[in-house]
Specification:
The chain is an all-alpha fold. Helix content is 69%, strand content 0%. It is built from 4 helices and no strands. Helix 2 crosses helix 3.
């Protein structure tokens, strides 16, 4: 899997954990289809074939919503910390 990630030049779609598990499972099945008896490894070509057949569930719109949520949450946390610091000085 590490070789697949590196050979993809960091350009993996934003897969969720279950999708990564499915990608690995499909790559293993592709290796078995290639040679059921002597399949000893799952090669990069198997991952590429599995990846070509998959579509990531997270869209750029959903990722943008998550990023906005994270920024909003960090902003609220900073305001809360500032209010707590102001109240603790005596």
């Amino acid at each position: 899997m590490a070789q697949f990630c590196w050979s993809s030049r960091g350009h993996l779609p934003p897969y969720v954990g279950a999708e990564l598990a499915g990608l690995c499972r499909e790559a293993a099945i592709a290796a078995l289809r290639e040679d059921l008896v002597a399949a000893a490894e799952v090669a990069n070509r198997h991952f590429q074939a599995a990846r070509a057949a998959m579509r990531a569930a997270l869209t750029s719109q959903v990722l943008a919503q998550y990023e906005k949520w994270q920024r909003d949450r960090q902003g609220r946390r900073a305001v809360h910390n500032e209010a707590g610091d102001a109240g603790s000085t005596a």
